[in-house]
Every structure is written in structure tokens, then in C-alpha cells.
Design goal:
heterodimer; A: alpha/beta; 5-stranded parallel sheet; 18 strands; globular; B: 27% helix; 20% strand
């Protein structure tokens, strides 16, 4: 019996030839990650453990991105805790505001995660790196604290669900729509505890950015992680980012490996989707929710804050004006994305359209700062969650979409299909 | 009464109760001892006010979905709740609960028959929950021994520290 990608990666990191779903393993991690919220608890727990040193100063990264640039005194104290710990332990990968970005945008672009790696992070969207064939999963702070001391975590080897997506979606639809489609089919616990291995012709033609967007939302289906094959496109993305591309050993599922279940989807001509409040699985085609009047539109986050996302939104907003009755906010996912957008002239056009263009932060996505909602307000965002009160007041409403739909909706002031605004835009 | 039993009031919740509902992001920078003031505060404002030491949370499917924020089980623990019973749990929440020394217990569909305020007795070792108010029993999944050891030690940190001391 062959092994799945997930089984192979975990076997290798546990020093075993073979593992199977259901086994418990102790595995060595390649990289550990935490942010200014979860990192603080992890540091407190690490200190309770009585461990003197971290297991490896090159394999722990703290990224202050949630309440940063600090929104208040308490968040400044949290960021200070990360900073002081990182200096005390001489961590190689500590990055200050101004030199990083939203963690899950920043780490892949810096070449810090590689196909076949095992990465654990104090953030549920750590699964993003699965878009590059990394077994990456979110954990709590106590797990991280113990892993910071030992370099190892215990894991149950998960079952794998295989998703085959065939066909060519509409030019208005992308990775966000493919993952919303899956969530609409399986629900928010359809992949609970399991790996979502995603492939097929629709994925082969999808950009690496689109795959990272899809993997990012595996957790919204309850998944432990998503895994995409590291094909030529992935290697091209990594070339110039990782130190030695020739040392990468991508991992592929064996023919005849055991999937718990296989889903076959035909996504030919798939039109953009919107997730309605209050679950990411509450999915409808854009055409069915047009006329929903909006108070705010935000483009950004670890889901859709990459340069490709800003380019797609820019195609729609160029030469247009945002509806005067709403706030339009655009947040690049990292300093690199910010600079690229500046060089390509995107930022000037966003500003001309009436957008607030911000420094990278997770802020509004979790109702932290820079875009919190008042009671009764409706927002369409390119984020990953639309839970009750996610972006502010519990009576506010959050809708999720791809960047093109968000941009079109910013212009019309209500949820809109991008063809309404720019019918001739190239796919 | 053995140490893995409790008999207290049930608070009932539905399916897909997410971590933002358990503790909203705007409270993620307060001191850990303060978290209990805000647990479920938007969704069930009476919960932080009226919850008593030993009360039990009873929920449907996929309890704790969403964020990895350990503040969610920590807030529940700080509020005095040691047992969360659900038909199923989201993966990260489940793991975090065990790591903090809270019993997150998967139960059979019979859990649907528990009503708000019922008195429950939980017996982890036997994998049973007894509804004293309505006189019926609910099947619960028992813990693998090593997870039971972690919870009984008070969580992963005390468990790991004990092992370091014993040099295991």
C-alpha cells in the first residue's frame, strides 16, 4: 500500500519508513511560527516549563502582525514581549513592523517554507503553506511552548481527503472561489481532523498565489492542513526565494495510496461566489446576492493580500471611483507586495478611486483595528472568516469574496459581479 | 467523589460555536485572569455573569472551530468550567483544551436531550455522562491513557515539567 503526501512527510519527520492514518508520532519540526497574540501566551508557557534555551534559534519565527503597528498600550506590551524574547534568545527570524507583513504572506515570499517541510504555527491559517506542498498546521500556544523547548510535536497522522477539480473556471473566478466552492459542498466540519489534498486540471492551471489562498482556508473546512503538489509552477515560484532550490525534495502521494474519500468536482465556467454571514460555507453565486448594500469593502489579509490579488482588483478599479457611501480599504500582505504595488502604479489608482491604502496588518480581519464595524454595518472582504462579530460589533455582517468581486462592489456600493463594472477586462 | 467527576449545571449551545464567539479578538490583549469576564459575552451576555465553578458546557457539532487562539479554552477554564461536552470538536480547540487541563469530551447524539440547567455527572473513566435531572445516561468517548495523564496533570506544561523532573 502506498502512502499519501501527508503520511510521507510525517514519516520522514518522525524518523520512520512508514506511518499510516491514525498512528501517533513525535515529529521534528522545520519551522515554528507565532504572532503577537499567540506568541505571548507561548512565551509565558515556555517560561513556566523551566527550559533555559530554545531548541534552535534558526527555526523559530515571531511575526508581529495582528495588532500592529500597535493599536494601543496593551498591544504594544504584547509586541514588546515578542521583541524581548527574540533578542534574549537571539532568534534569527524576528522581524519588526516595516520589515515583514502578514505572516502567511511573508513566510512563503521569503522562502522560509519549502515543499516537504513540517511547519507548526500559533495561528490557525498556518495551513496556507500547504499551497507549496508543506505539511503546515495551526496549534495553540502551549503546544508551541513545548515545541520551542524540544523541537518536536506529537501528531496524530490524519486521514486524507482527495479533491479533484477539473475544468476552467470563469475569468472572474480564482482560488478563492474554488475553496469557497469546496466549503459550500462539504461544510465547515467536512474535513475535520483531515488533510485536504487538492489537485486536478483546475489546480494545475491555477497560480501558486491562488493555491496559497485555497490552502489558507482549509481550516474553514476543519482541515488539519491542505496539500498541493509542488509542481514546476511551485518550483518556479520558489526559485530565487529559497537558498538552495536543488536541495528541495518535493513529496508526492503514491499511486494506490489510501484516501478516506475522493471528491470529483467539475468547475468548468464556475462564476465567483460569496460566503454570506455567519459561516464561510454559506456560499452563493454573486448574482444571487446582488443588491446587498455595503458600508465597507476591504481587500487584503493572509487569504488575498498578495500582489496577484491587488493586480486583479486594480484591473476593476482603474479609472473608477468607489461609491461615496462606503469605506474602501486596501491592505497589502507584506512590504514586498507594498513595494511591488507602488512600482506598478497600482497604489496611485487605488487612491484615486478613493481607497485608504494601509501598511501591512491583519487588523480588520479579526476586528482588531483599522476597519472595525459598527452595529448593523455590512462589509464585503477578501478575508477568510465571517463569524458573528468577527470584524467588530456582533450585529455587523461580514461577506467573503475574491478581490475582483470586492473591487467591483466597492465601485457600485453593493455586492456586484465584476462584469457589471468592467465587462471587457481580460481574464 | 473521584477527581474526574462533576455534577453541575449545563449551559447549552448549538453547532459550529467558533472561537470568535467564545472570546472576541478585542479581548485578546487583556491579562489572562481577566478573560473570564468576556467569555461568550457577545453571544450569551449572562454567561460570564452567572457561570459557576463546576458548570458544564454542552454543545453540538464542531465546537471551537476557527482560530488557534488558546485564549478560548483558557477563558472557559478561568470561568471555572472544566468539562466541555460536544457531539464533536474542532481539532485545534480540542488539542488546546487537553493541553490546558480541560476535559473536552465527545458524546453521542443523546446529548441533544440535555436542556439548559440540567444537572449532569460526568465520569470520564467509564465514558458516561449521567443526566440527574432527567434520569438518563449519555455515552461519552473515553480518553486514551496518555491524554488522560496530561489532563489530570493539569495540562501539557505541568505534565512535561513532571517528566523533566522525573527524567523520563
Amino acid at each position: 500500500m502506498g502512502m499519501t503526501m501527508a503520511e510521507k512527510i510525517l514519516a520522514k519527520h518522525a524518523g520512520k519508513d512508514k506511518v499510516k492514518a491514525g498512528d501517533f508520532v513525535f515529529a521534528e519540526v522545520d519551522l515554528l511560527l507565532a504572532n503577537d497574540i499567540t506568541g505571548v501566551l507561548a512565551i509565558q508557557e515556555f517560561e513556566k516549563l523551566g527550559a533555559e534555551n530554545v531548541f534552535d534559534k534558526d527555526k523559530i519565527t515571531f511575526i508581529p502582525d495582528h495588532f500592529t503597528p500597535n493599536k494601543d498600550i496593551l498591544s504594544a506590551k504584547q509586541a514588546k514581549t515578542l521583541r524581548e524574547f527574540s533578542r534574549k534568545h537571539d532568534l534569527t527570524h524576528y522581524y519588526e513592523v516595516g520589515r515583514c507583513g502578514v505572516e502567511h504572506v511573508f513566510l512563503p515570499e521569503q522562502g522560509m517554507v519549502k515543499p516537504g517541510d513540517l511547519v507548526v504555527g500559533g495561528d490557525s491559517h498556518t495551513c496556507t503553506y500547504g499551497g507549496l506542498g508543506v505539511f503546515a498546521t495551526g496549534m495553540g500556544s502551549t503546544d508551541l511552548a513545548c515545541a520551542m523547548a524540544t523541537g518536536r510535536v506529537w501528531l496524530k497522522v490524519p486521514e486524507t481527503l482527495r479533491f479533484n477539480m477539473e475544468g476552467t473556471p470563469s475569468k472572474w473566478a480564482g482560488g478563492k472561489d474554488l475553496i469557497l466552492y469546496i466549503l459550500g459542498q462539504i461544510g465547515v466540519d467536512g474535513a475535520r481532523y483531515k488533510v485536504m489534498e487538492i489537485g486536478g486540471s483546475a489546480i494545475e492551471s491555477l497560480s501558486v498565489e491562488g493555491r496559497l489562498t485555497m490552502a489558507n482556508m482549509a481550516i474553514e473546512g476543519g482541515g488539519k492542513t491542505a496539500l498541493f503538489k509542488a509542481d514546476d509552477k511551485a518550483m518556479e515560484y520558489l526559485d530565487g526565494r529559497v537558498d538552495n532550490i536543488n536541495e528541495i525534495e518535493p513529496v508526492f502521494s503514491d499511486k494506490g495510496c489510501e484516501y478516506e474519500k475522493t471528491y470529483n468536482y467539475n468547475v468548468e465556467g464556475l462564476e465567483p461566489l460569496v460566503a454570506l454571514p455567519h459561516l464561510p460555507s454559506n456560499v452563493k453565486p454573486v448574482d444571487e446576492v446582488e443588491e446587498t448594500v455595503l458600508d465597507q469593502v476591504v481587500i487584503g489579509s493572509c487569504t488575498n493580500g498578495r500582489i496577484e490579488d491587488l493586480r486583479e482588483a486594480h484591473q476593476i478599479i482603474k479609472g473608477e471611483k468607489a461609491d461615496p457611501n462606503l469605506r474602501f480599504i486596501v491592505i497589502p500582505g507584506s512590504q514586498e507586495v507594498y513595494k511591488q504595488a507602488l512600482e506598478e502604479g497600482l497604489i496611485a489608482d487605488f487612491i484615486d478611486a478613493g481607497a485608504a491604502f494601509s501598511t501591512p496588518t491583519c487588523g480588520p480581519c479579526l476586528g482588531g483595528h483599522m476597519g472595525v464595524l459598527a452595529p448593523g454595518e455590512k462589509a464585503l472582504v477578501t478575508f477568510n472568516r465571517n463569524f458573528i462579530g468577527r470584524m467588530g460589533d456582533p450585529e455587523s455582517l461580514v461577506y467573503l469574496s475574491n478581490p475582483q468581486v470586492a473591487a467591483a462592489s466597492a465601485i457600485t456600493g453593493k455586492i456586484s459581479h465584476p462584469r457589471e463594472v468592467k465587462p471587457h477586462v481580460k481574464g | 467523589m473521584s477527581k474526574d467527576r462533576t455534577n453541575n449545571r449545563a449551559w447549552t449551545f448549538g453547532n459550529d460555536i467558533d472561537t470568535d464567539v467564545i472570546i472576541a479578538a478585542r479581548y485578546l490583549s487583556v491579562e489572562r485572569e481577566e478573560l473570564k469576564k468576556y467569555v461568550f459575552c457577545d453571544y450569551r451576555p449572562e454567561f460570564p455573569r452567572d457561570v459557576k465553578e463546576g458548570d458544564v458546557i454542552v454543545a453540538g457539532r464542531n465546537f471551537g472551530c476557527g482560530s488557534s487562539r488558546e485564549h478560548a479554552p483558557l477563558a472557559i477554564k478561568e470561568a471555572g468550567v472544566k468539562y466541555v461536552l460536544a457531539k464533536s470538536f474542532a481539532r485545534i480547540f480540542y488539542r488546546n483544551a487537553v493541553n490546558l487541563g480541560i476535559y473536552a469530551v465527545e458524546c453521542s447524539d443523546k446529548l441533544d436531550d440535555v436542556e439548559e440547567g440540567d444537572e449532569l455527572e460526568v465520569n470520564i473513566r467509564e465514558g458516561k455522562v449521567y443526566n440527574k435531572t432527567k434520569d438518563f445516561e449519555i455515552e461519552a468517548t473515553s480518553y486514551p491513557p496518555f491524554m488522560l495523564e496530561i489532563v489530570e496533570a493539569g495540562g501539557l506544561v505541568p505534565y512535561t515539567r513532571e517528566r523533566i523532573l522525573k527524567n523520563e
